[in-house]
Design a protein that fits this description.
A hairpin with a 5-residue loop joins strand 2 and strand 3. This protein has a three-stranded antiparallel sheet with strand order 1-3-2. By secondary structure, it is mostly helical. Helix 7 packs across helix 8. It is 70% helix and 4% strand. It contains 13 helices and three strands, in the order βααββααααααααααα.
Length: 251
């Protein structure tokens, strides 16, 4: 199959101007350009565009998307990963929609609101399988029990601490701070202390083990879902390098 630039723009909800920009920066080249200057896209180009749009929805910038596509040469593996993420999101959003619908029904009908149903789909359990695979079922069970035992105020405080840490990392990365500098290493110290406060993490209660911190830092870069918390792959790379340096010095 082959589609013109106008057809691709219509099908994807983007614009011809955007597609030409993708061509100019080397992100998506047309499969051929006709004698009249029209751009045409074959199946390979359309699949690449699909991956670009998926990564863009994850919050990555165009430069980060290009690096991800260049690194993930196995298209089938990459698409399977995208599909798994989309299905997880589909299930999570369906749970959230059902939760909000139950709240509306209760509010309009004067019935009771069930707190244990009200926040279904809003918790951290979307990463359950990944945590169990990486660090074991006991690690997830302990952290899950700890989280559920927190009050709403404690949960908000924990989430704000994480959000502030992410903002501070992002600001330092944007300012071009050296990962081995004192400023970056202070951020790394705060990050490791934050990790060590989560029951179930390797080394909880003392200092997280070196392999855990290094592996988690690598995951921030490798997985776009986590990289977006630090402004994309570039910011996540800064976090990774700083954490690697901290682990080498102190863990």
């Amino acid at each position: 199959m082959e589609a013109s630039i106008q057809e691709v723009a219509r099908l994807t909800g983007t614009t011809s101007r955007t597609l030409r920009h993708y061509d100019r920066i080397g992100l998506l080249e047309p499969s051929r350009v006709g004698e009249n200057g029209y751009r045409w896209y074959d199946e390979d180009a359309l699949v690449r565009l699909q991956r670009i749009l998926l990564l863009r929805d994850l919050g990555l910038g165009l430069a980060d998307i290009g690096r991800v596509l260049d690194r993930e040469q196995d298209e089938t593996v990459a698409l399977r990963r995208h599909l798994a993420w989309l299905r997880d999101e589909q299930r999570r959003l369906a749970r959230q929609a059902a939760s909000v619908e139950r709240t509306l029904t209760a509010r309009q009908g004067g019935g009771p609101i069930m707190a244990d149903e009200m926040f279904d789909g809003f918790d951290h359990t979307q990463y359950k399988d990944e945590v169990e695979e990486r660090w074991g079922k006991d690690a997830y069970a302990r952290s899950d029990a700890w989280w559920r035992g927190l009050s709403d105020q404690q949960k908000r405080a924990f989430q704000e601490e994480a959000a502030q840490l992410g903002r501070d990392w992002g600001a330092a990365a944007e300012a071009g701070v050296d990962p081995v500098s004192d400023e970056a290493q202070e951020l790394a110290r705060r990050h490791v202390a934050w990790l060590g406060g989560i029951p179930g993490t390797p080394g909880h209660g003392t200092a997280p083990v070196r392999e855990y911190v290094v592996g988690l830092a690598d995951m921030y870069v490798a997985d776009p879902r986590f990289a977006k918390n630090y402004g994309g792959e570039q910011g996540a790379t800064f976090v990774r390098d700083a954490l690697h340096e901290y682990a080498a010095r102190h863990l």
